[in-house]
Amino acid sequence: MTWDVVIAGAGPGGSTTAALLAGAGCRVLVLEKSEFPRFHVGESLLPVGLSVHARLGIEPDPQSHFFKRGAEFVCEATDRKAQFDFADTLPGPARHAWHVDRALFDTRLRDCAVDRGATVRHGVGVRDFTAHADGVEVETSAGVERARYFIDATGQSRLVARRRRAVVPYREFGRAAAFAHFTGLAPGAWDEIGPGDIRIMWVDDGWAWVIPLPGDRLSIGRVSRHGGMGPAGLRAYVENSPMLSRWTAGAERGPTHVVSNFSYRNDAAYGARYACVGDAACFLDPVFSSGVALAMTGAERTADRLLPALAAGGEGDPALMAPVDAHMKRGYAIFAALIDRFYNTRFVDNMIFGVPLDGAFKPGVISVLAGDVWRSDNRFADMLQRARRRAGSSERPGRGQVDPPAPAASVQ
Ligand SMILES: Cc1cc2nc3c(=O)[nH]c(=O)nc-3n(C[C@H](O)[C@H](O)[C@H](O)COP(=O)(O)OP(=O)(O)OC[C@H]3O[C@@H](n4cnc5c(N)ncnc54)[C@H](O)[C@@H]3O)c2cc1C
Q1: For a tag site, which of 157, 223, 302, 408 has the least CB within 10 Å?
Q2: Which CATH superfamily is domain 2-170+262-411 in?
Q3: Does pTM top 0.85 for this prediction?
């Protein structure tokens, strides 16, 4: 059988694309190498992605969703805190977000794709694809599939970027992360945790996240910009943090996961009969929790662009996805500028912990933190874009090293 679209990967990017295409009548095959449910990092979402959830009919569920009010930045060494509430953002998208159990959330997205008519096969890895004039051949661990179009949604595996040697790493961002779930928190911890902010802990060589999850769980992750972060580093950090050692006293720590080399862009994110969505197109340091929102936003744009092309037989145009790519690049560029400032300037001292932001400016900062980065009436977003262009950075082609070491992931 020839499919309209074969999609590699059933994470938020792949399943969103599949659900929207299949729901519009396309014959969609999703190939996912893992069995679901499976653990996945990336638990704190942004308001900007919630319109896609609504379009897919994904309702918050107490098993998988925990209310997210906003973000609190914390520097324990200097006893400083600064809270940003999504309710104070510029008018537009949702004024809250969710923290999610990714095993359950991703399974629900996958089920949504199936309910809308997509075929999903687990335990099948995609190895490569070849575009021809009249279609694509997708080489998998279970044989060859044929389709009119191919979507790479393989996340950090970034299949196409690797095959095309088009990975450009962002070396000035975080280089390694170690993270684990803590269950059964100390008495009183949830009173201190409060109404669902992600805590972004500002520490010497990077930062750490503290994300409340359903089921009396905290996700704690420690990111180092110099690499070398592992289970021992995470353990030492939690033990030495007054706040976290208090909250996790007596708690059970789950397996520690370790990842590295996770910030890059793909300079071949679309082409003849293919497009990359989500992390397969680009992934930035997770400090501002942009990954899932950008993956689902990009997936939605990709599906909406592909549908009329398939209907008109125009899906072979190599430039088909150029407008989607340009749109997503603006989002990635603004987040890259923000992350660059976070690591490489006094932005955190001056704008996060510094003088209270004036009434007009603060909603603009929160709007960017909420992921609402495509609007044209935000002075803060404009400033980030201008500063990025003036300073130059890894966003410029050629600055990174092509074909970097493979991303390493392990569980200990
Ligand atoms: C340390 C860290 C912390 C993060 N924290 C956050 C956060 O708080 N909030 C947030 O929004 N984002 C966060 N992210 C990012 C987030 O995890 C990703 O942006 C998001 O999961 C991207 O979705 P995706 O569908 O593109 O990829 P994924 O969710 O990774 O899904 C890709 C799927 O493809 C499958 N696959 C891979 N290769 C193949 C193959 N060859 N064949 C078939 N299937 C394949 C995988 O098994 C996987 O299921 C974080 C990332 C890191 C590294």
Answers
A1: 408
A2: FAD/NAD(P)-binding domain (3.50.50.60)
A3: yes
